[in-house]
Design brief:
Strand content: 35-45%
Order of helices and strands: EEHHEEHEEEEEEEEEEEEE
Number of strands: 17
Oligomer: single chain
Low-confidence stretches: 1-7
Structural class: mainly beta
């Protein structure tokens, strides 16, 4: 599994995640209190004005900025925020949600490259002969779960991103082929996906011998990506969806003329 999912999704620049109960936050702030002139003294004054919300329902959330280069977009937000139960996410108080976790899982999804065999083999392609494709190993669906758990708050947020291989496209890598590319729907069998193009209506066919180094035939698989707000990869998909993924593998193919002697 070496090909990352292609994505035009990027996470929000920052969000709040649950970190401390009122007592834990009080202990945390005051354990860093060294003098009345320290920054921690000012935080103790600001955040402890109402005794850190001790006795209230909710918790202290920490601002998380996954990409420090985007920190300026969150400069106006407090590093800590008291958030009550079921308080909705707003631009001023963006909290992590399943959609954000789904996107983070998507960016960590690794898609297998297509493990295929060419017939004839890549080193012995022939002019005017179909290039048939078969999978050595069928592709499985892949999934990644991202979750946020904080038992002290009774919080469990999870999302699972699932990618299913659906189409294979083969590109000849040269204009000297007819057709120059073919696309096949992958078929499911035993929970995995593959194709055999022996009897397909389309197979790349080279019409000119290759130069030194051969032609760069490219096989690409499109993966349909869905997400569900749970740790179950088979859970019902949610909207809005995520972009398709793609994994590719290149083969250098040597194409020669079939020399025959007529008598």
């Amino acid at each position: 599994m070496t090909a990352p999912a292609t994505s035009n999704w990027s996470p929000p620049p920052c969000w709040y995640e649950p970190e401390f109960t009122p007592k834990q936050f009080s202990d945390y702030i005051n354990s860093h209190y060294t003098s009345a002139q320290s920054a921690w003294a000012q935080m103790a004054s600001d955040y402890g004005a109402n005794d850190y919300h001790k006795g209230d329902k909710g918790g202290w959330y920490q601002l998380v900025t996954p990409d420090i280069s985007k920190a300026d977009a969150c400069a106006a937000l407090d590093p800590w925020k008291w958030i009550a139960p079921d308080q909705p996410s707003t631009p001023d108080i963006p909290t992590v949600d399943p959609k954000t976790l789904a996107g983070l899982a998507f960016n960590r999804t690794i898609l297998p490259k297509p493990d295929i065999t060419l017939r004839p083999i890549a080193q012995n392609q022939l002019v005017n002969l179909d290039t048939e494709i078969a999978f050595d190993k069928a592709l499985p669906k892949v999934w990644v779960t991202a979750s946020l758990d904080n038992p002290a708050f009774g919080i469990h947020v999870a999302a699972t991103t699932t990618a299913v291989p659906v189409r294979l496209t083969v590109d000849a890598g040269t204009q000297y082929a007819d057709p120059q590319s073919c696309t096949y729907d992958l078929k499911a069998s035993g929970g995995k996906y593959s194709v055999n193009t022996k009897d397909a209506g389309c197979n790349v066919t080279y019409d000119k011998a290759s130069p030194n180094g051969g032609y760069p035939l490219k096989a690409s698989v499109v993966w349909e990506v869905t997400w569900t707000p749970s740790a179950d990869p088979d859970g019902p998909p949610s909207a809005p969806g995520l972009p398709n993924g793609q994994s590719s593998k290149q083969f250098q193919v040597t194409v020669r003329e079939d020399q025959t002697v007529n008598r």
